[in-house]
Amino acid sequence: MKEVEKIITVKNLVKKFGDFIANDNLNFDVYKGEIFGFLGANGAGKTTAIKILCGLSKPTSGDIEVGGFDVYKQTEQIKKNIGYMSQKFSLYEDLTVFENIRFYAGIYGLTNKEIREKSDNLIQQLEMQDFRDSLISAIPLGWKQKLALSIAIIHQPKIVFLDEPTGGVDPITRRQFWDLIYDTANKGITVFVTTHYMDEAEYCNRVSIMVDGKIVALDTPKRLKEIYHAANMDDVFLQLAR
Amino acid sequence: MMNSSIRIEGINKRYDDILALKNISFDVAKNELFGLIGPNGAGKTTLFRILTSLLLPDNGSASMEGIDVIKDYKKIRSMVGYMPGRFSLYQDLTVEENLQFFATVFGTTIKENYDLIRDIYVQIEPFKKRKTGDLSGGMKQKLALSCALIHKPDVLILDEPTTGVDAVSRKEFWIMLKELKNKGITILVATPYMDEASLCDRVALIQKGQILQIDKPKTIIDEFNKKIFNIQAESSYNLIQDLRKYEDTYSAYLFGQYVHYIDKKSSYETIKLKEYLVKAGHTSIEIEQIKPTIEDVFMDLM
Question: Cβ contacts (< 8 Å) between A201 and chain B: which residues?
Fold first, then answer.
């Protein structure tokens, strides 16, 4: 049986910018070790909610805990216990593979000894020995993304947030990246992921769909397809978001 | 001979030790909606920059509507509409100011060519006083398309217009492209989304600077000579793991809730595979032969 230990709890989350309600009373839990798909149209309010969950922005109201820490008062603890990766923000192009690992590991407070061990292991796991001292700008995008994810979890966080991690990559690399997501979840790290590829929504344990600041659906992909009499998640999404 | 709008002949482009484009040649017919399908780093943007006169090829030639992209680059710039992959409008101007700016730069007015952009622009017109930087992704994309069209180009070149755009906006965008095609514009569009290939008249599959195949999407699918099986079981994660270990597996890839499977043998029976999966503990197994998708073909060519 799957553990149902909650790693994120969101109760009545509201975020307003002036008159505009970006997050309109969100309620959901995310369980330890699950892959949680956070879907929605552009402008639906996903980024606003992710920023709050990462401790980067304060909600207007609501009770929200991430990894057992409060998003109002314990943002520093939250930041230590999460990892974050996106297509837009990840690695420094003008640093080498090793320098990026050392930099992020240092930021997360690992000791020099730990950094040496971890970086050797990581480079070996990713089979990037020959590229240890190559600039990030010189390695293929698929590798960058795998490296970025590995670095985002180098401090063994409780949760990792992946914001559109697979945009633009080739279909094989995209699938290899999902292997890495499954590995991450199997290590007990909760994966909170956004994507515009609806086939990837099928790979999540549970999926929420946001429309105009509200969560309009949250369930397993299988249940959602039953509820909306849909052949696939693309159909579900189109029915809800159009 | 088809009536060509875009002709590309033997283009090579090297950046230091990376060959970004290897001997690229193809034609796009007048009024065709042509897709360049390939991942990041395939060379799509390099080719588009050469076509739009922003970059010189090492060798080879290209023309649009009979105009050479190197010799007559000034003419090229007035007859092509280009929407780059990176959002390139002025974020601190309003929606209306951006459109006005591009019209003026091209020596025309919004009014003169309004017919061409009406259907797209009306969707963002309620926000015309808003700063462009404050628009959502879908709205930015509509404005960028309007700006690329405001000088009534003969050829429209779109570099990944749907990357990072949600599934609903993507569908709407392709409807807009069909309408522009119906108005007589030749469209060359790049996309990493394989499912968008089926919406093009013809596509070129491109990977690592080389064209893998060019044809109508339907022909590419019909001519694919391997049998693809759609396999479903209770846990698709375990299913893919077990299929990778199976002795007769040629390839097995996740496709949403299914696995697409190709067997090493062409004369292939499902009984042996089903027995293997049952033995591995799988339940609710369903195996059926299906038509391939462009994504299946692409991965097989890679």
Answer: 256
CATH of the domain at B248: 3.30.70.2070
Query: Using CB atoms, which residue from B137, B167, B237 is nearest to A238?
Result: B167
Of residues B168, B194, B236, nearest to A171 (C-beta): B194
The predicted complex's ipTM stands at: 0.79
CATH classification of the domain holding B105: 3.40.50.300
Question: Could A141 and B39 be called an inter-chain contact, meaning their C-beta atoms sit closer than 8 Å?
Answer: yes
Cβ distance A178 to B254 less than 8 Å, yes or no, reads: yes
Question: Which residues on adjacent β-strands are paired with residue A29?
Answer: A9
Into how many domains does chain B fold? 2
Tell me the pairing of strands B18-29 and B33-37.
Answer: unpaired
The two structure tokens encoding residue B301: 């060519």
Asked whether residue B198 falls in the same domain as residue B237, the answer is: no
Nearest to A43 among B42, B136, B171 (CB): B136
Domain that holds residue B272: 228-301
pTM of the model: 0.85
Give the one of B160, B165, B298 whose C-beta lies nearest to A42's C-beta: B165
Q: How far is CA A125 from CA A45, A120, B26, in A?
A: 36, 9, 41
Chain center to CA of A210: 16
Q: What is the pLDDT of residues B71-88, one digit of tens each?
A: 999 999 999 999 998 888
Are residue B269 and residue B175 in the same domain, yes or no? Answer: no
Q: Check A41 against B237: CB less than 8 A apart.
A: no
Q: Which of B160, B192, B222 is the last residue of a domain?
A: B222
* Sequential pLDDT tens for chain A (242 residues): 445 799 999 999 999 999 999 999 999 999 999 999 999 988 889 989 999 999 999 999 999 999 999 999 999 999 999 999 987 667 999 999 999 999 999 999 999 999 999 999 999 988 899 899 999 988 887 888 889 999 999 999 999 999 989 887 888 888 989 999 999 998 999 999 999 899 999 999 999 999 999 999 999 999 999 999 999 999 999 999 87
CA distance A194 to chain B (A): 11
Q: How far apart are CA B214 and CA B35, in angstroms?
A: 10
Cβ–Cβ < 8 Å for A155, A146: no
CB contact under 8 Å between B254 and A203, yes or no, is: yes
In this prediction, residue B40 carries a pLDDT of: 78
Q: How far is B135 from chain A (nearest CA, A)?
A: 9
Per-residue pLDDT of B152-209, as tens digits, reads 999 999 999 988 788 888 888 999 999 999 999 999 999 988 889 999 999 999 999 9
User: Alpha-carbon distance A203 to B256, whole Å?
Assistant: 7
Angle (CA) A225 A175 B189, round 5°: 85
What six digits make up the tokens of A112? 């020099």
Query: Cβ separation of A198 and B256 shorter than 8 Å?
Result: yes
Closest residue of A to B193, CA-based? A168
Q: CA–CA separation, B67 vs B50, rounded Å?
A: 13
| Chain A residues in contact with B295 (beta carbon < 8 A) | 171
Q: Say yes or no: A175 contacts chain B, CB-CB below 8 A.
A: yes
Per-domain boundaries in chain A = 6-91+158-241
Superfamily of domain A6-91+158-241: P-loop containing nucleotide triphosphate hydrolases (3.40.50.300)
**Do B215 and B263 belong to one domain?**
no
